[in-house]
Amino acid sequence: MAPSLHTAYECSLEEVLCLILNFCHLLVPPGHDEAVSLLLANGVPVDPLNYRGTPLHGAAAMDQDQALKILLEHGADPNRILQHVLSPLTLAYCARSLKCMKLLVEADADVNFNSPRGKPVLMMAVDNGLTDIVKYLLEVGADPNIHGRESSIFA
Protein backbone atom coordinates (compact mmCIF):
# COMPACT_ATOMS: atom_id res chain seq x y z
CA MET A 1 0.00 0.00 0.00
CA ALA A 2 1.41 3.38 -0.99
CA PRO A 3 1.86 6.05 1.67
CA SER A 4 -0.51 9.02 1.79
CA LEU A 5 0.61 12.34 0.39
CA HIS A 6 0.76 14.02 3.80
CA THR A 7 3.27 11.40 5.05
CA ALA A 8 5.51 11.60 1.98
CA TYR A 9 8.24 13.40 3.95
CA GLU A 10 8.77 10.17 5.94
CA CYS A 11 9.30 8.03 2.81
CA SER A 12 12.20 7.05 0.66
CA LEU A 13 12.68 8.80 -2.68
CA GLU A 14 11.34 5.76 -4.54
CA GLU A 15 8.18 5.70 -2.39
CA VAL A 16 7.63 9.42 -3.02
CA LEU A 17 8.10 8.97 -6.78
CA CYS A 18 5.65 6.04 -6.76
CA LEU A 19 3.18 8.16 -4.84
CA ILE A 20 3.51 10.98 -7.36
CA LEU A 21 3.09 8.60 -10.27
CA ASN A 22 0.03 7.03 -8.65
CA PHE A 23 -1.62 10.42 -8.38
CA CYS A 24 -0.35 11.67 -11.74
CA HIS A 25 -3.87 11.75 -13.11
CA LEU A 26 -4.60 14.47 -10.53
CA LEU A 27 -1.25 16.28 -10.66
CA VAL A 28 -0.40 16.31 -14.35
CA PRO A 29 -2.82 18.20 -16.56
CA PRO A 30 -3.48 16.76 -20.02
CA GLY A 31 -0.73 17.76 -22.43
CA HIS A 32 2.01 17.52 -19.79
CA ASP A 33 2.58 13.81 -20.03
CA GLU A 34 6.34 14.18 -20.24
CA ALA A 35 6.31 14.13 -16.43
CA VAL A 36 4.92 10.58 -16.55
CA SER A 37 7.60 9.57 -19.06
CA LEU A 38 10.33 11.15 -16.95
CA LEU A 39 9.26 9.31 -13.80
CA LEU A 40 9.05 5.98 -15.61
CA ALA A 41 12.39 6.53 -17.36
CA ASN A 42 13.97 7.02 -13.94
CA GLY A 43 12.87 3.66 -12.63
CA VAL A 44 9.58 4.42 -10.91
CA PRO A 45 7.42 1.26 -10.96
CA VAL A 46 4.62 1.51 -13.50
CA ASP A 47 1.94 -0.31 -11.46
CA PRO A 48 2.03 0.93 -7.85
CA LEU A 49 -1.32 0.09 -6.27
CA ASN A 50 -3.26 1.89 -3.58
CA TYR A 51 -6.95 2.16 -2.72
CA ARG A 52 -7.53 4.30 -5.84
CA GLY A 53 -5.92 1.76 -8.12
CA THR A 54 -2.87 2.14 -10.30
CA PRO A 55 -1.86 5.10 -12.44
CA LEU A 56 -3.43 3.23 -15.37
CA HIS A 57 -6.77 3.13 -13.52
CA GLY A 58 -6.48 6.88 -12.91
CA ALA A 59 -5.59 7.72 -16.49
CA ALA A 60 -8.49 5.61 -17.79
CA ALA A 61 -10.96 7.15 -15.33
CA MET A 62 -9.89 10.68 -16.24
CA ASP A 63 -9.85 10.12 -20.03
CA GLN A 64 -6.12 10.88 -20.20
CA ASP A 65 -5.31 8.85 -23.29
CA GLN A 66 -1.75 10.10 -23.71
CA ALA A 67 -0.78 9.25 -20.13
CA LEU A 68 -2.52 5.90 -20.52
CA LYS A 69 -0.56 5.21 -23.72
CA ILE A 70 2.75 6.03 -22.00
CA LEU A 71 1.90 3.78 -19.05
CA LEU A 72 1.01 0.91 -21.38
CA GLU A 73 4.23 1.41 -23.35
CA HIS A 74 6.13 1.01 -20.07
CA GLY A 75 4.38 -2.26 -19.23
CA ALA A 76 1.36 -1.27 -17.16
CA ASP A 77 -1.04 -4.20 -16.72
CA PRO A 78 -4.27 -3.51 -18.66
CA ASN A 79 -6.05 -6.27 -16.72
CA ARG A 80 -5.17 -5.33 -13.14
CA ILE A 81 -8.38 -5.41 -11.14
CA LEU A 82 -9.08 -2.98 -8.33
CA GLN A 83 -11.09 -4.26 -5.36
CA HIS A 84 -12.28 -7.30 -7.37
CA VAL A 85 -14.52 -5.02 -9.43
CA LEU A 86 -12.79 -2.35 -11.49
CA SER A 87 -10.61 -2.97 -14.50
CA PRO A 88 -8.96 -0.11 -16.39
CA LEU A 89 -11.35 -0.90 -19.28
CA THR A 90 -14.35 -0.52 -16.96
CA LEU A 91 -13.06 2.87 -15.81
CA ALA A 92 -12.43 3.99 -19.40
CA TYR A 93 -16.03 3.01 -20.13
CA CYS A 94 -17.24 5.00 -17.09
CA ALA A 95 -15.37 8.02 -18.50
CA ARG A 96 -17.03 7.30 -21.87
CA SER A 97 -13.56 7.31 -23.39
CA LEU A 98 -13.58 5.21 -26.53
CA LYS A 99 -10.03 6.40 -27.20
CA CYS A 100 -8.76 4.97 -23.90
CA MET A 101 -10.80 1.81 -24.39
CA LYS A 102 -9.16 1.24 -27.78
CA LEU A 103 -5.67 1.70 -26.30
CA LEU A 104 -6.45 -0.78 -23.54
CA VAL A 105 -7.86 -3.36 -25.95
CA GLU A 106 -4.78 -2.97 -28.18
CA ALA A 107 -2.76 -3.81 -25.06
CA ASP A 108 -4.82 -7.00 -24.56
CA ALA A 109 -7.34 -5.78 -22.00
CA ASP A 110 -9.97 -8.45 -21.34
CA VAL A 111 -13.14 -7.23 -23.10
CA ASN A 112 -15.13 -9.98 -21.38
CA PHE A 113 -14.09 -9.26 -17.78
CA ASN A 114 -17.13 -10.03 -15.66
CA SER A 115 -17.10 -8.38 -12.28
CA PRO A 116 -18.68 -10.35 -9.45
CA ARG A 117 -20.66 -7.20 -8.61
CA GLY A 118 -21.76 -5.97 -12.00
CA LYS A 119 -21.93 -6.51 -15.72
CA PRO A 120 -19.33 -6.74 -18.45
CA VAL A 121 -18.55 -3.45 -20.17
CA LEU A 122 -20.49 -4.50 -23.27
CA MET A 123 -23.71 -4.98 -21.29
CA MET A 124 -23.23 -1.65 -19.48
CA ALA A 125 -22.85 0.07 -22.86
CA VAL A 126 -25.97 -1.69 -24.19
CA ASP A 127 -27.96 -0.64 -21.11
CA ASN A 128 -26.88 2.97 -21.58
CA GLY A 129 -27.42 3.09 -25.34
CA LEU A 130 -23.80 3.84 -26.18
CA THR A 131 -23.88 2.51 -29.72
CA ASP A 132 -20.33 3.48 -30.69
CA ILE A 133 -18.91 1.60 -27.71
CA VAL A 134 -21.20 -1.40 -28.29
CA LYS A 135 -20.14 -1.62 -31.96
CA TYR A 136 -16.46 -1.35 -31.07
CA LEU A 137 -16.60 -3.98 -28.33
CA LEU A 138 -18.42 -6.41 -30.61
CA GLU A 139 -15.82 -5.79 -33.36
CA VAL A 140 -12.99 -6.72 -30.99
CA GLY A 141 -14.61 -9.88 -29.70
CA ALA A 142 -16.73 -9.00 -26.69
CA ASP A 143 -19.13 -11.85 -26.00
CA PRO A 144 -22.78 -10.69 -26.03
CA ASN A 145 -23.78 -13.85 -24.15
CA ILE A 146 -22.04 -12.82 -20.91
CA HIS A 147 -24.61 -10.84 -18.97
CA GLY A 148 -23.20 -10.64 -15.46
CA ARG A 149 -25.32 -9.86 -12.44
CA GLU A 150 -28.60 -8.01 -12.66
CA SER A 151 -27.64 -5.39 -10.10
CA SER A 152 -24.86 -3.33 -11.63
CA ILE A 153 -22.97 -0.72 -9.66
CA PHE A 154 -22.33 1.25 -12.89
CA ALA A 155 -25.56 1.21 -14.89
From TrEMBL:
Keywords: ANK repeat. ANK repeats lie at residues 51-83, 117-149. InterPro entries: Ankyrin_rpt, Ankyrin_rpt-contain_sf, Cul2-RING_E3_ligase_SR. This is Uncharacterized protein. It comes from Panicum miliaceum (Proso millet).
